[in-house]
């Protein structure tokens, strides 16, 4: 270790924290003309720094000491600064990565490693939040089926079993079953004209419903559509024991299950823009979504920090916009500061994942965020998308001042048309999500072109410019047979089509108001569904707390629009529920697993099971049983005890 960076809370009020930052030179050489580069997601009060100045873009901060004093061998440099915030209680709030440079302006940066120590919050010890679980039950299905009857006896699954040929609607579910049995049990079940495992069409069953009957000699999975067959397969896989009997067979308990979903849309969003998640990780995640009867994977593919989808019309989006680093067009953010970091999904990889998900009953909805959160695109295509005369002063939620598309540029509409045309052709889902969130006050106000554009169209408020862009995007999508989706802010400026599906994320109330206004809604209030939120109160908890804490039992408690009368027609606009994992701090498999599991299982039951069947003690017992599967699967979930 040659250089070390310490961060300590030295004072706090209701509206601000004051910190000491100490840089240690532990080498035998002096460091000249140095700058300190570090990541912190909070907005730092740059004017509060002592002995130097700060430039911050997003989470990326560059500190330059006053008069460039050399950092002598075995010495330290001390500075203080403030962050105007009302909460700073977790180690994740501190500096999570840093490096030094001795580069002068215009030269290539050569990062010098710095070890960052855990921030000293000056807090007393806080016990870890736990959710004690009841003893596992004999059968531990999640989500809770509408009707389950346990029968006496077992079905003995072995390599001698055969899957009977079935209708085309069952083909995907059968491929999934075969893949899971080969992976979990090293059993390869053939598909023949007759067999022991039967997938049968039953037109009397409602869409997505299923009937699963496990008898001593045969297993029957009945459904009226492909989704129902997948859900039946999910229950069958959960009945499969984790270990074989001494004779080498797997004893599946005999049951009779009739089941159907409470909500039609049951989704989970993963942010792959802030940190890139490899295809293998997403495939495993989709396996788990299917196992717990989700049916939608919302894929957040573009944002300020990265463009992750190949677009033939604009190769620059992935050549430039998919990468960030000290010497890239996109500066480093969050982690991996000292290296070139990123990645993207080729169209071939996306098609592969779409097919993989389809076998498991999962629809993939792509999100191309606009008109905000577009920094990666703007840096990739400056001649097309940047307005050189725009002097607007704004700072977005992630502290960027240059991430908004201009409604006054012809290039903006060329870009939207070409990108959405390729996205619509690539994804078979009937929906495309266009973001529409977090355009800050101040955007477009000091652009002569935008002001002229507003006058031409009779617009009085800047947010009407967002509606103009989104209406154009909607026209492009509608021409391609797609329905537009967006975050709750898309209704600002009053102009999006009532056919737009609204995702409520800031609060439950936003979803209610959208539904009352006639929009179909997906409920995704952060307070109950954002898995980037911390799961407890002790400083070592991973995550953020801007929307509060979200332990397992709070996820399970969520009942959307519960205050409404069950007969209120507003319920007809509630399409379903979705969870989300925003990945500003999620850059490893361990963090990915820790933030998602086992909360995903609680959300699964919220999405699927009838509210009157949900009971915490019963769920906790079944979850206890499911944890054994997660252990075997190598999932690094947050422990409940």
TrEMBL record:
GO BP term, pick one: glycosaminoglycan metabolic process
Pfam families: Glyco_hydro_20, Glyco_hydro_20b
Record flagged with keyword Hydrolase: yes
Superkingdom in the source lineage: Bacteria
EC number from the UniProt entry: 3.2.1.52
Family per similarity comment: Belongs to the glycosyl hydrolase 20 family.
GO CC terms, sorted: membrane
PANTHER family per UniProt: BETA-HEXOSAMINIDASE (PTHR22600), BETA-N-ACETYLHEXOSAMINIDASE (PTHR22600:SF57)
Gene3D superfamilies on file: 2.60.40.290, Chitobiase/beta-hexosaminidase domain 2-like, Glycosidases
Glycoside hydrolase family 20 catalytic domain boundaries: 264-610
Record keywords: Glycosidase, Hydrolase
Catalyses which reaction(s): Hydrolysis of terminal non-reducing N-acetyl-D-hexosamine residues in N-acetyl-beta-D-hexosaminides
Protein name: beta-N-acetylhexosaminidase
Beta-hexosaminidase bacterial type N-terminal domain sequence ranges: 139-260
Xref: InterPro entries: Beta_hexosaminidase_sua/sub, CBM2_carb-bd_dom_sf, GH, Glyco_hydro_20_cat, Hex-like_dom2, HEX_bac_N
Source organism per UniProt: Photobacterium jeanii
UniProt key word Hydrolase: yes
Annotated GO MF terms: beta-N-acetylhexosaminidase activity; polysaccharide binding
Residue positions of the active site: 438 (proton donor)
């Amino acid at each position: 270790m040659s250089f070390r960076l310490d961060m300590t809370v030295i004072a706090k009020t209701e509206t601000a924290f004051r910190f000491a930052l100490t840089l240690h030179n532990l080498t035998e050489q002096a460091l000249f003309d140095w700058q300190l580069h570090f990541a912190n997601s909070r907005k730092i009060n740059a004017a509060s720094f002592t002995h130097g100045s700060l430039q911050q873009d997003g989470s990326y901060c560059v500190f330059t000491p006053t008069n460039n004093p050399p950092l002598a061998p075995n010495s330290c440099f001390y500075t203080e600064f403030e962050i105007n915030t009302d909460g700073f209680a977790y180690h994740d709030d501190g500096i999570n990565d840093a490096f030094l440079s001795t580069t002068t302006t215009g030269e290539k940066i050569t990062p010098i490693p710095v070890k960052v120590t855990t921030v000293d919050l000056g807090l007393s010890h806080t016990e870890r939040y736990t959710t004690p679980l009841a003893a596992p039950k004999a059968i531990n299905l999640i989500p809770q089926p509408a009707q389950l009857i346990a029968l006496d006896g077992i079905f003995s699954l072995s390599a001698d079993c055969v899957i009977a040929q079935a209708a085309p609607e069952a083909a995907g579910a059968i491929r999934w079953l075969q893949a899971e049995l080969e992976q979990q049990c090293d059993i390869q079940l053939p598909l023949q004209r007759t067999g022991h495992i039967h997938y049968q069409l039953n037109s009397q069953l409602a869409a997505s419903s299923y009937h699963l009957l496990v008898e001593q000699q045969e297993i029957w999975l009945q459904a009226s559509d492909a989704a129902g067959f997948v859900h039946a397969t999910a229950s069958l896989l959960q009945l499969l024991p984790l270990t074989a009997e001494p004779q080498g067979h797997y004893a599946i308990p005999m049951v009779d299950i009739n089941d159907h979903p409470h909500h039609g849309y049951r989704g989970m969003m993963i942010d792959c823009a802030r940190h890139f998640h490899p295809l293998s990780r997403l495939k495993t995640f989709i396996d788990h979504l299917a196992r717990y009867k989700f049916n939608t994977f919302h894929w957040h593919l573009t944002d300020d920090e990265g463009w992750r989808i190949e677009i033939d019309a604009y190769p620059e989006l992935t050549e430039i916009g998919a990468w960030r680093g000290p010497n890239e067009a996109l500066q480093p953010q969050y982690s991996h500061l000292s290296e070139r970091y990123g990645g993207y999904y080729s169209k071939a990889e996306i098609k592969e994942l779409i097919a993989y998900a389809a076998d498991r009953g999962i629809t993939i909805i792509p999100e191309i965020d606009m008109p905000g959160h577009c920094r990666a695109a703007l840096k990739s295509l400056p001649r097309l998308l940047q307005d050189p005369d725009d002097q607007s002063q704004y700072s977005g939620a992630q502290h960027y001042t240059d991430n908004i598309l201009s409604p006054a540029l012809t290039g903006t509409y060329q870009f939207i048309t070409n990108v959405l045309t390729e996205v619509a052709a690539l994804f078979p889902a009937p929906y495309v999500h266009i973001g529409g969130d977090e355009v800050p006050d101040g955007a477009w106000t000091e652009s002569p072109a935008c002001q002229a554009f507003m006058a031409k169209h009779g617009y009085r408020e800047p947010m009407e410019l967002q509606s103009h862009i989104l209406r154009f995007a909607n026209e492009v999508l509608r021409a391609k047979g797609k329905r537009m989706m967006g975050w709750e802010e898309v209704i600002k400026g009053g102009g999006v089509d009532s056919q737009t599906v609204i995702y409520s994320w800031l609060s439950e109330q936003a979803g209610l108001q959208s539904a009352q206004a006639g929009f179909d809604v997906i409920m995704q209030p952060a307070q109950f569904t954002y898995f980037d939120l911390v799961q407890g109160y002790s400083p070592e908890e991973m995550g953020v707390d801007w929307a509060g804490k979200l332990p397992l039992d709070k996820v399970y408690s969520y009942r959307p629009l519960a205050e409404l009368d069950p007969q209120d027609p507003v319920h007809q606009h509630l399409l379903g529920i979705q969870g989300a994992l925003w990945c500003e701090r999620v850059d490893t498999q361990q963090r990915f697993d820790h933030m998602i599991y086992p909360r995903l299982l609680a959300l699964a039951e919220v999405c699927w099971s009838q509210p009157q069947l949900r009971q915490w003690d019963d769920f906790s017992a079944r979850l206890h049983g499911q944890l054994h599967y997660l252990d075997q699967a190598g999932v690094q979930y947050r422990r409940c005890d």
